[in-house]
Amino acid sequence: QCLAKRSDFGALAPIDSPCALHITRAMSTQMGNGHDGERLAVSLHSFGEETSVPVRIRKAVLRVFPALAIKQNLVQLDLTVVNDQVERDIGAKLNVPLPAGGTVCRFEFFRNGEWYPAVPVEAKVAREVVYKEKEKGHAVGATSQKQGNIFEIEISPLGYNSPAQCRLWYSHPDGGFPFDFGPDTEVEVDRHLGQECDAGTLMGTGACVVGDCFGQRHFACFVPYIKPMEEMVAVAPKRMALLWDTSGSQESDHRLRFDRLRELASRCPQMTFDVWTFDIDFRREMVSAGVEEAIAMLTSVNYDGGSDLTLLSSLLPALGQVDAVLLFSDGMDSLGRLPSIQDPSPPVHCIVDQAKVSLRTLSAVSLSTGGRLLRGDYLQIMKPQVLLTNIRSDQEDEGFFDPNDAFKCCPDHRLHLQWPVGEEGLWLCGTVGTVCKVSVQVSTGSQTSTHDFDLTAAPVLAAGAAPLLGYLFAQQQYSAVERDGAAMGI
């Protein structure tokens, strides 16, 4: 059995969350069309006290359901495995490396004539269930957290010479065959044709798609990014706070950071810097310093110990009258805690320039304060931010105020929140209900753009690919909860 109950599986585990079903998304091997480049080896092993015994994957069937309109594919990987070496019931770990950008949607294991879906639960709860069930003599498995773009789960029982079946669904822009199963595995690839209307892709203005899945009609609309006009310049901050993480993990060569600070200062000659350092406590090191003074001070910092990111909730109010904040940290708290930022704060721009960072934490901090994730130079803070500022629909007033109305939208059209739109654009998705038309407004500085979506005229995804819309909706909802939860202290 998987760690599961008999229910539909429509949730997604976030990237670095404490959930039992976990898939991270960073992998050095980049796949092209699914046929070029290094293949990804799928393996199944039973681990004993001293040895690891491979379990044969007898057959692998890859079914690809393309959603041409949203440039995604729902891929179903069916595996038939057999324990032909150990003359008793065993458990084995299935290890499936995915192409970069792949997201696990669903996993099922076939037992006693029925399919059992895995369900994400808190990791602590998963461990407790596994322990209790094994104490009762039951065979039970759970996924484990892995580094890289790898899905791993324990499946059991696998009887001697008794074929067992399991299924894994994942989404990915490429519908090619990236896996390597070895010479003894029979491999089949079944590619279904996309059946939606020939309406191009969602990368255009005012385009959307609908599909029927999980008992409802879902929709997804693509909101494109507006490139700010060259002459648009945001108000340059005059007083900047630098929050510098001095925990042991941050000791490295920071010359690139210093060069980018100098570049920012050269564009803002009147800017001064307040320098703060923190680990398990915070200290103000300098006030209204020049850029070279600030860099000289940071060059002499000693790194040691862990970091307490919950300090941010009390550190930010202590900054005083600063215009903006640059946070230099990997976002990894020593005890896995998340900051709770409830008081008004200047925008906190989080520097993302390290190989290992917690995007979950840094995204929550930046979004809840109106800041940005800075992956390159720091001049981005000089440009006006592109925001989704308004969502309207033809939903009736009664339905608008009814939380159980069938029309649901993410971002939530009822909250009137401003959502940042990155250069990759933004997804607006949900369930249709009785709504026919949706309109959104995107703004940057004085520049405004309106996008109108007609859900009744939208292309309809084929039945096999339609669940992608449900998974996308679940993923967007989780992101929204993390963003708004950080702002509300949840």
Written description of the protein model:
It is a single chain. The chain is built from seven helices and 26 strands. It is an alpha+beta fold and about 500 residues long. The strands form six sheets. Strands 8-7-10-5-4-12 form a six-stranded mixed sheet, with helices on one face. Strands 17-16-15-18-19-20 form a six-stranded mixed sheet. A four-stranded antiparallel sheet has the order 3-2-6-9, with no helix packed on it. Strand 4 (about 55-65) and strand 5 (about 70-80) form a beta hairpin. Helix 5 packs across helix 7 (about 465-490). It is globular and about 75 Å long. The two termini are about 35 Å apart.
Radius of gyration, taken over Cα atoms and rounded to an integer in Å: 25 Å
| Low-confidence parts | 1-36, 196-200
Q: How much helical structure, as a percent, in the residues?
A: 10-25%
Spatial strand order of the main sheet: 8-7-10-5-4-12
* Overall 3D form: globular
Would you tell me the structural class of the helices and strands? alpha+beta
**Mean pLDDT, all residues:** 80
Q: What is the β-strand count?
A: 26
What is the beta-strand fraction?
A: 25-35%
Separation, N- and C-terminal Cα atoms: 33 Å
Largest sheet: 6 strands, mixed
Helix count, DSSP H or I runs of 4 or more residues: 7
